[in-house]
C-alpha cells in the first residue's frame, strides 16, 4: 500500500531510506524541497491509515483496528492525575522531534518552496482545528465556504501563505510549532521550529466546517480515536 503512495508522489525510495539519507548521510540540503513536503505528507497518510491509488489518485479509507477482539481483563481505573496536563502533552509534546522535521527534513522551507496550499494539505488527509484560529480568520473561512462549500474556489485555501499561518496558529492537528527563538511569538519563518505530536495519528475533527471526502477536514478536535474516516 505504501508503495502505491510512493509511486503517486514519484518517490524512488521508501520513507525510511529518505530519513536515512537525511539523518545519517546528511543529504537533506541536496534534496528537492518539494520531495521533503511529499515525504512528510506520506508519513501523515501512513499514520492516518490512508493510501492513494495509482489509478485515481484519490485518498481512500483503509480500516484501522484498535487491537484484538479479546483485550484481556479490565484493569482498575486510575484515579487522580492531571487530565489537563495529560491532554497538553498528548496534543503538543514533540519529544524534541522538531530537530528532525525542521533541522533535517526542513519542512517549513519545503512548504514554502513547493507552495503547498491548505486545500492540497487537506486533500491528502491533514486536519485543521477551527478553534485554534483567531476570530477574524474563522469569519473569513465561514464566508468563503458559504460561497463554495468545497473550498475549491476559496482564495484563502488556495494561498500558500495561509498554510504557514495555519502552522503558526498551531491549528494543523499533529504539527506543533515551538517558540524556539524565545521571542514570545510563533513563526516558522523567523526561526521557530515545527515537530509532530501524538495527535497526528490519534486526533481528528468532527469536520463541522469542511469535510473533504477521501481527505481531511476542518472542525472541532476529537482526541483519542485512531484517525479514520467516518
Summarize the structure.
The protein is of the alpha+beta class. 38% of the residues lie in helices and 12% in strands.
Q: What's the SSE blueprint?
A:
Layout: H1 2-9, H2 15-23, H3 33-47, E1 50-52, E2 59-61, H4 83-92, H5 98-104, H6 107-113, H7 118-123, E3 127-129, H8 135-147, H9 160-168, E4 175-178, E5 193-196, H10 199-202, E6 203-205, E7 210-211, E8 217-219, E9 221-223
Parallel strand pairs: 3-8
Antiparallel strand pairs: 1-2, 4-5, 6-9, 7-8
Largest sheet: 3 strands, mixed
- Spatial strand order of the main sheet: 3-8-7
Estimate what percentage of residues fall within beta strands.
5-15%
User: What is the SS-derived class?
Assistant: alpha+beta
Helix content: 25-40%
Mean pLDDT: 77
Radius of gyration from the CA trace? 18 Å
Instruction: Tell me the number of helical segments per DSSP (H or I, 4 or more residues long).
Output: 10
The total number of structural domains is 1
Low-confidence stretches: 1-16, 22-35, 44-62
C-alpha geometry: globular
Q: Give me the count of strands.
A: 9
User: What is the string of SSEs from the N terminus onward?
Assistant: HHHEEHHHHEHHEEHEEEE
N- and C-termini, Cα separation: 20 Å
Amino acid at each position: 500500500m505504501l508503495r502505491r503512495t510512493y509511486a503517486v508522489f514519484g518517490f524512488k525510495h521508501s520513507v525510511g531510506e529518505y530519513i536515512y539519507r537525511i539523518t545519517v548521510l546528511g543529504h537533506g540540503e541536496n534534496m528537492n524541497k518539494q520531495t521533503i513536503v511529499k515525504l512528510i505528507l506520506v508519513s501523515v497518510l501512513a499514520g492516518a491509515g490512508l493510501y492513494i491509488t495509482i489509478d485515481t489518485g484519490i485518498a481512500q479509507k483503509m480500516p484501522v483496528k484498535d487491537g484484538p477482539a479479546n483485550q484481556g481483563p479490565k484493569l482498575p481505573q486510575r484515579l487522580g492525575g492531571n487530565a489537563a496536563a495529560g491532554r497538553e502533552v498528548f496534543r503538543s509534546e514533540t519529544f524534541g522531534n522538531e530537530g528532525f522535521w525542521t533541522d533535517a527534513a526542513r519542512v517549513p522551507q519545503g512548504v514554502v518552496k513547493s507552495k503547498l496550499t491548505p486545500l492540497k494539505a487537506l486533500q491528502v488527509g491533514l486536519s485543521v482545528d477551527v478553534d485554534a484560529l483567531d476570530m477574524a480568520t474563522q469569519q473569513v473561512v465561514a464566508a468563503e465556504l458559504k460561497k463554495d462549500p468545497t473550498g475549491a474556489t476559496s482564495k484563502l485555501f488556495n494561498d500558500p501563505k495561509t498554510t504557514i499561518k495555519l502552522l503558526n496558529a498551531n491549528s494543523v492537528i499533529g504539527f506543533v510549532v515551538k517558540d524556539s527563538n524565545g521571542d514570545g511569538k510563533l513563526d516558522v519563518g523567523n526561526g521557530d521550529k515545527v515537530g509532530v505530536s501524538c495527535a497526528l495519528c490519534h486526533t481528528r475533527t468532527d469536520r463541522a466546517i469542511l469535510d473533504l471526502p477521501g481527505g481531511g477536514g476542518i472542525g472541532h478536535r476529537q482526541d483519542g480515536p485512531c484517525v479514520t474516516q467516518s
